[in-house]
Amino acid sequence: MSLLIVIVSVVALLILLITKLKINPFISFLLISIAAGFALGMPAQAVSESVQKGIGGMLGSILVIICIGAMIGKLVAESGAAQVISDAIMKVFGRKYIQWGLLSTGFIIGIPLFYNVGFVLTVPIIFALVYKYKLPAVYIGLPMLAALSVAHGFLPPHPSPAALVTIFQASMGKTLFYGIIIAIPTIIIAGPLFSQTVKNIRPIGGLTTFDSVVRLSVLPSTFNSFFSALLPVFLLAATSTLLLILPEESTVTAVCHFVSDPSILMLIALIVATYTIGLRMGRSIKEIMRIYEEAIKEIAIILLIIGSSGALKQVLVDSGASEQIGMFFSDLHIHPLVLAWLISASIRVCLGSATVAGLTTAGIIAPLMSTFNVDPALMVLAIGSGSLMFSHVNDPGFWMFKEYFNISLKDTFRSWSLMETIVSVAGLVGVLLLHSIIG
What we know:
- Belongs to the GntP permease family.
- InterPro entries: Glcn_transporter.
- The chain is mostly helical.
- It has one domain.
């Protein structure tokens, strides 16, 4: 009976509140957490304590990572570093390999930038190249947006992957490393290869006018731009490598353990970026702090949603319902990674939000991890892949793509929705292949 209550309250009611009643996901998560607690027979005091414990536990370990990630991403965009990275990559690839250049640009700047910021930032770049080379917009733009989507769903410090790393107690460095391994073939399939099938899609009545990309009078150097934007990745790679080769008792190992902590690592990256693409480029500390404040405002609702999802997970654990779910799924004989992907993909299709889909799935799966013989990092990536499944009319990204590229609904489904589906399925295949290799 508890399992039925959980399925109804967590999935059906969540879908009803968000899609039909248009209630904010943060409020929806809170209401469902409380309702599930009472329905599962928890005392009122215990429900309240579980909700508070879940929110505090979730945000306590993830707040710094997401907030600093947003700050770095905003500064990368406002300083012009993202534009410098784009220009540098396009010079390397040229017109003949323009799609590969855009794919590389989207992936590299997609690591520090949140998806919506990355989308708005890269569309003018795409359109400037459309006007310059007279190529179909959807054809050359899809690889870049596929790369942005993969970074958003697979790679920390993006909110959903970062939160999933915390929930499953996975290694941030290993998740990023595995995520990049899976991401590269995924974006090649969903980007340059798939886009060959949509060459004939044309806008209805022309594109939004982006004759040129807005440029600042002073831009950071190419090295400075790459270094500042990707410093978190460099630090993670360096510390993870050193920890593998250094003796456990060495002083350098202790320093690496300290620096590799995600919160410390992100803080170091922020301090460096504040100087390299902030103060060094002539911006005042007051202006830089304004940029950081705006970044926090833009992700406030994401933080609330992540925190409230922690409340739901804690209620499921404290009520004992997670044990019944585990017993039920253990009898289904479905691979845990496939199961997590299926749940995440189903919720994504119903709700439209990749973040909500990922966090809801984590609340169901996390308490069962002790019974699954899978790497937590791969579980993060399986759920992340499922959360990108078949974007359609209930996803804001679907409408952003349709309106910016000015195409019909049919063509949006044929290009954007199918691209997201390919990303999701290819991601799952990559996760399963990695699982078979590493055991």
